[in-house]
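Quick question: what would this complex look like in 3D?
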Amino acid sequence: MMRATVMYGAGDVRIESVPEARIVERTDALVIVTHACICGSDLWPYRKLEHTDTGLRMGHEFIGVVEDVGADVRSVKRGDVVVAPFMWSDGTCEFCEQGLQTSCLHGGFWGGTELDGGQGEAVRVPQADGTLVALPLGRGDSLMPSLLTLSDVMGTGHHAAVVARAGAGRIVAVVGDGAVGLCGVLAARRLGAEQIILLGRHADRIALGREFGATDVVSERGEEAIERVLELTGGLGAHSVLECVGYEESTNTALRIARPGGAVGRVGVPQDAAMPAAQSTFRKNITIAGGPAPVRAYMAELLPDVMEGRIEPGRVLDRVTDLDGVPDGYRAMNEREAIKVMISF
Amino acid sequence: MMRATVMYGAGDVRIESVPEARIVERTDALVIVTHACICGSDLWPYRKLEHTDTGLRMGHEFIGVVEDVGADVRSVKRGDVVVAPFMWSDGTCEFCEQGLQTSCLHGGFWGGTELDGGQGEAVRVPQADGTLVALPLGRGDSLMPSLLTLSDVMGTGHHAAVVARAGAGRIVAVVGDGAVGLCGVLAARRLGAEQIILLGRHADRIALGREFGATDVVSERGEEAIERVLELTGGLGAHSVLECVGYEESTNTALRIARPGGAVGRVGVPQDAAMPAAQSTFRKNITIAGGPAPVRAYMAELLPDVMEGRIEPGRVLDRVTDLDGVPDGYRAMNEREAIKVMISF
């Protein structure tokens, strides 16, 4: 048996003994987890999940050491330090070849009732060749927090910035000051944006956002936030907007602060079936793009910047715990005590 | 006085005497209309407009002869045959310079209560230099119907195809078999698409769609239409989808038949405040783009193909009337007797 995080319902997160992770398919790897995270998206079930007797294994961001590989695995070997994206993918299907590994025809999510999650001692990794990326360092390295963000939040912020066409000469607005929004600020600056407007209301997060490159902060909400962004952009709105929350209100704000011809990158998981502002986005020819970030595709581009210290997204991980502290880590993130919690094994 | 089309409410279209069109600003031109159209978008008020005592001047697609120009007009002169886009624009603002004339900071729509509309004997054209394009032919030319579609429907179908990234190697689906949808088929073929799936149910329109390049036709609706498109695309959906209707059902269909990483170009005027399928488009990283087509920007690209007969979008104009026949033209289009009506003065 091994120990892992299991969620049984809203607010009910437990550390339990579960069956030992092991190789099942010839394409699997077995990874001993050394670092993992609690994700903002883990808070959706933490707030809303109905009770389940089976429980759901949790965690989709992790770094670890390869303990064993199946017979067909070629790209990683025992002893490698590896980072996993928040979805696993075969690396060879039509969508993987296009760099959209989150739509892999033979991939999927971690955890749940069928697979191991990252918030546990070990993980069976399906499609190891397509999924894992070996890191050129040892397990104690100080770059670990930043490398860990390549699993999800840094790649997700980058995705929002890319699909919103952030870059030189563009005004970027970032809706949401959570870990993804803050990484979105970092990504926008990395891509060359000069004016970066962060919409958020938490002093600690805003302070980090300014260090990451935000030039303006808007802490109003709703219509007032929209007016304030218009004031900051000569009345026209932002060229690129990153939606990093997922609620209807934040989506409405994001869609309405984009200027005509602008683009909105959605990476906050939408909590509603419909999207607002269908008519105003039409009138203004706004492009709406985004979705689950193909972070596996972005690792090659972002890894050198992390290794050479040009970006330090790991600063969003402002609390560290061991596995036993995970339930309290969920609580702390849900109550906005912590931006994002790292689990060190 | 001159004669023009005025709408007073749903189903209430009249030909009336109105004040003579004349030059007001130094940037105006006065155009004597020779050819105009009734638009599918004119049918929205034809079905829903509440009674108004003032009435609304109608028509936004026209070709005519320049009768006079204001002192500052440089690009057209008396005697020129000109085509007008469905919105007027100054040609010099930030958005015009980007080719997004439908968001011109000093532009607007034809007709209504303030301006002349195209469905009348003459039009005062604001911002003539930015708005009008001179045509290299006389007023009786047989190319007139196709040239007239550059005012709106051909440029609009082209816009949908462009923003949906139609092109070589891509599977394109076109939702709607109206004039815009049919022009979308033509635009998709022009851009190199090989498989073009037309979703429509009217035999005459489908027949023209096949001549324009549709390789498959889907006449089912709702969930059945979605299933049928998936069958035709190896279960994956279309790379590029053109939404050419504007109803919630057609939008839902369009958004759900796009494959992961695909793009939907919206040109049907949305009739609802919310957009469906917010979550499934997110999961699949669908890009949603489009809006009022900057047909003024597309004229330079499309005009040579019309002049040299490579495309014949004027075939969507399957009925011709004089000004007195306009009210019956609205009725015929609304009852699907005609695809699109041309008015010849």
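Answer marked as accepted. The radius of gyration of chain A is 20 Å.
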